[in-house]
Amino acid sequence: MAEDMAEDVGRSDPRLGELGSRLADRYPDLTVTLDHSSALELLVATILSAQCTDARVNEVTPALFQRFPTAEDYAGADREELEEYVRSTGFFRNKAKHIQQMSARLVADHGGEIPGTMEALVELPGVARKTANVILSNWFGVHEGVVVDTHVKRVAGRLGLTEETDPAKVERDLMELLPTDQWRPFAWRLILHGRSTCAARRPNCSGCELADLCPSSRAFD
Questions:
Q1: Which residue in 8, 25, 29, 149 is the catalytic one?
Q2: What does the alpha-carbon distance between residue 65 and residue 69 come to, in Å, rounded to a whole number?
Q3: pLDDT at 37 over 50
Q4: Cβ 193 vs Cβ 27: under 8 Å
């Protein structure tokens, strides 16, 4: 598998093949960790996951999805009731507002269905490129960009794959480095690596599979 990944990952940086191989060996499962059974559920869960763990979101969404199964249900919900359902995910007022406004736009412009294009998704309230990329790549199998969350931004920067801090510019750099078929898996594995090893405050460089390829590593200090 490592040899296949080395051939598939982009060639602009000589480390990319080995980085991709090691990440693929360490994180072979690309399953999205947000529980969902529809595009709407994935979109709502992704909105809730901002500054919240996926595990916490997955605790909240079963009751939420049962109470509000359609975009029409979210759009017509009592705001205070919706807030109570999502309260434990943090920033619950803004999240409830975005979910309700997004759903109202879905009903008005898309018959309550999630559109399958970047252009249409980013027009929805509360949906930026990161969220749109999650929906497109994981539900529709469409790869128009690279998901850049806080983990991707941090790990890509530490690895020297970008010098940018703005998510849109980080995404641009990664899109230029990686072939299209690696946009989703490489970024998702960076997310998993950021969660498990390359933490913001105390990265576990001594236990990192990428340490010898990382210019920011403290493993050899």
A1: 149
A2: 5
A3: yes
A4: yes
User: Above 90 in pLDDT, residue 10?
Assistant: no
Catalytic residue among 130, 153, 169, 212: 130
User: pLDDT tens digits for 84-113?
Assistant: 999 999 999 999 999 999 999 999 999 999
What residue ranges define each of the domains in the chain, with the CATH number in brackets? 2-30+145-213 (1.10.1670.10), 39-140 (1.10.340.30)
Q: CA angle, corner 111, sides to 106 and 117, nearest 5?
A: 60
**Confidence band of 221 (pLDDT split at 50, 70, 90):** low
**Cα dist from 91 to 25, 88, 182, whole Å:** 36, 9, 33
Tell me phi and psi for residue 124, to 5 degrees: -80, 140
pLDDT in tens, 154-192: 999 999 999 999 999 999 999 999 999 999 999 999 999
**Active site (annotated) includes residue 169:** no
Whether 149 is catalytic is yes
